[in-house]
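Field reference: sequence -> structure
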Amino acid sequence: MNAQQREAIVQALWPQAAARRRGVWGVLDCARDPWIYPALVESRLEFLCLYSGRLAPALERVAPQLVELHPGNRFTARWLDEGWGRSWGILVRIEDPSNLRHHLRKFLKVRDEQGRSLLFRYYDPRVLRAYLPTCTADELRALFGPIDSFLAETAAGDGLVEFGLRRGELEVAVRVDDALSQQAQAG
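Structure field:
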């Protein structure tokens, strides 16, 4: 990612008018790269595992982690510089994060046609980008809940896709090089 793309993504994530009201939280897929978990620990940011209970250290290191991100933080910069385009996780924008972990945990498991319980890796940006446009209005309302928007890297890793729920329909905005290059409504 070049410096212009990085700055465009930072500006899209933390527009000055909204910076004080809505936090940006990362849902990191620590299984994607062995660097992620140690970097979280080293960052001294407060982070929470989406899995519950006491976990074996090996599982904790690869589990999805929830962390609040800040524009000037070293961990945030490192994710954008080294992890962007490598499917390290997704972002959510939310005004009141008090129940965010609880809300996100609801979607970790799904049932297949045979009734088997499966892990649902919605926090992988490749999965999220494919999944959200297929959701019904009820599924979207359940998934978004208190979340203002879901954000993920573009497939090419050169921008940011923002998914919002407006009047019950999925709204998708793609930002590349600080320009709103595409806006679509899916329903």
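Note: Residues 3-13 form the longest helix (11 residues).
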